[in-house]
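User: Predict the full complex structure for these chains.
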Amino acid sequence: MLHQKPAHDQTAMPDYAPHSHPHPSARDLIAAHGGRVTRTRIAVIETLQAAQHPLSHDEIGAALAAADIAHDRVTLYRALDWLVEQGIAQRIAGGERAWRFEIRHDGAHRHAHFHCDRCGQILCLEEVPTETSPALPAGFELDRTELVLHGACADCGRQGAKAGTR
Amino acid sequence: MLHQKPAHDQTAMPDYAPHSHPHPSARDLIAAHGGRVTRTRIAVIETLQAAQHPLSHDEIGAALAAADIAHDRVTLYRALDWLVEQGIAQRIAGGERAWRFEIRHDGAHRHAHFHCDRCGQILCLEEVPTETSPALPAGFELDRTELVLHGACADCGRQGAKAGTR
DNA sequence: ATTCAAATGCTACAATGTTGCATCAAAAGC
DNA sequence: GCTTTTGATGCAACATTGTAGCATTTGAAT
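Assistant: Here is the predicted structure of the four-chain assembly.
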């Protein structure tokens, strides 16, 4: 697993915490979808916007804690559910049987992900577009395509650890 | 979720149970990797070989039960772990935070998967090859690519259910 | 300030997967 | 065929991830 994070450290600022926001305002995003503007939702959106890679529920929770924001697991799950439902965020099935979340980009900005099978890290490959129009059996409707490259990231590759496909 | 299966029915033969085996013998496969040839491993391999789509741990367990083979959850997990470790099978991260397993094909036979976001079913798209050589950042090693198409399968699409991205 | 549905924060639970350890059995040696 | 030995199994207990129900709080409309 990939838990080098300082657990519930209230002072340290994780590297995926918001630095600047060249994104649509979280408040506006929420309001535009007819939802209530709450601390939790704002913080979640800003955290996702600032992230350089898809975040796990756990990582987002840590960011909220760092921002001194309510920290109930269920609330966070529901906030994320709502964002996904509204199309603001999207789930991607990172290994480790836990969802990861990222801001949903419009069609043009879709990108692939790289999954390091050694450290479990997932990162966005902005340069690699996801394939678009493959032939599907009759009756199937395509919503979106997800392209995941599996292998070893630069850090893990250098350390040359032996590893399974896991 | 997708649990229409008859739980622990000892008589019914699920549609993914072995019918014929145009595949390498399970015994040989196991022995070739230096493992012990046990009922569990044989049955798991044969089940996977006969399957038309990647199977969840649960589905494999049901197949074992149908074949009157020991049914301990942990044993099955470990058998699957071993197969993956040996490169005989591979895990794919079907949504629903549960792994799915399929026999690992060699390079030429790689295929994409379709994930129905409504019923959770996953099926193999033999005709759709996975993309192969995208540009990766320096230091990254590519092991395999996974292409998942999300949408509604023929059954769900016809029923026209409204559904989230989930 | 009042109202009221939408969000929250409990608690309790479900599903999926893992660890430790005693027991069993596959295949190797005799 | 019998014994040995180590890998595989089975069980119980636990960890992690995610859900459900319900009382309470709060955003924002009046």
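Chain B touches chain A through 46 residues (CB under 8 Å).
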